[in-house]
Write a structure and sequence with these properties.
The chain is α+β, with helices and mostly antiparallel strands. Helices cover 52% and strands 17% of the residues. It is built from eleven helices and ten strands. The strands form two sheets. Strands 3-4-8-5-7-6 form a six-stranded mixed β-barrel. The longest helix has 43 residues. It is elongated, with a radius of gyration of 34 Å. The chain starts with a helix and ends with a helix.
Length: 406
Amino acid sequence: MIRIKLLTRLALRDLLYDRKISFCLVASLLAVIAPLLLLFSLKYGIVSQLQHKLLTNPRNLEIKIVGVTSGHKFDPTWFAQMAAESRVRFVIPQVRILNSQADFRNPTNNKQSLNVPLIPTAKGDPLLPQQGAPLKTNGIVLSALTAQSLGIELGQQLELSVLRQISGKGERQRIRLEVIQILPEYSYNAQGAFVLLPLLVALEDYIDGKAFDFQSIEGEVSTILPEREFAKGRLYVKELNDVSPMASQLRAQGIETNTQAAAIEEMQAIDSVLNLLFSVIAITAIIGCVLSLSGSFLANIERKRKDISLLMLFGFKPKEINVYLIIQAFMLASSAFLFALLLYYLSSLIVNGSLGSLSRDNLVSFLLPSHILIALLLTLFISCTIAFIGSRRALMIQPAESLREI
């Protein structure tokens, strides 16, 4: 039976006795591990976050419909076909541009009314936070610029009004809506108000001369589209790679589109270059780390040949010698990693303090606990593996050969 407790005490006392050598070994490991932690924290921090925000920005997934050939119809059938497409993430009809404008006024102040474009929305809209308040017909979602211009806050009531001309006489319809969400500027950096489609259709019908009955649609959240033609629609795909194929499919139907295809290609090129750059640096650093660990531990084991021979003469079995050396490697690697982690933490504080403005979360250097755990396990695995290989080499030497040199 392997005497783990005794071997652990011997390994610790040996390291403390040769404290100068132990310090040099820990320092050599620290010099490799700390820069690796900082490198990966930068990769995950500023680079990965910025790339993720750029590559997943809903505005880049939008396919804007700018025109159609004569005879094309944006009817419920067409929207149902688009919703069934595997590439499409979200699609919703839009009314005519002239009918998608409304005047807004904050009843609690005397500010002048503001003319704002109305944008149809529904559950699953990529521009809206999925954790926000549920959408409702008597609710409205404002962009940050619109809310600021109106001086209104979340949960307050605002007045929406639209004007129409009937027989040369102007008529105005006013309704009160509750502000249920306010989009931050990074989500939508323009004037805009998001409302459910039934309300927008009812307002268009009112402008076209029909009666307006808000009570009949209040609370309605049905996804069934009315049997009518729409001016165009809002359409978003699921992934960046779906933008070009979907735009080509729409153009084949005679629908002119506008996308961020050029920007997407540029972002993907930057992403590939950065991934290659960090991969090369990381692989080089890891190879250097392995070589450093190999040199340090193998040299330390070679230096302890006489001590190992004495342990064998004292009755320790080869397996116990292996465990003894692995325990020492575990202690050295653990100590080096803890000091490297402390050095990384201090370095990340300096980096985040100096360059935090580059990230919206003020985190340029950042690692998750899972990343630190993986780095620790990888360091211990490499260290113990090298120690095991070195111990097998040392055990091939007969004790008498080593003791002759004393």
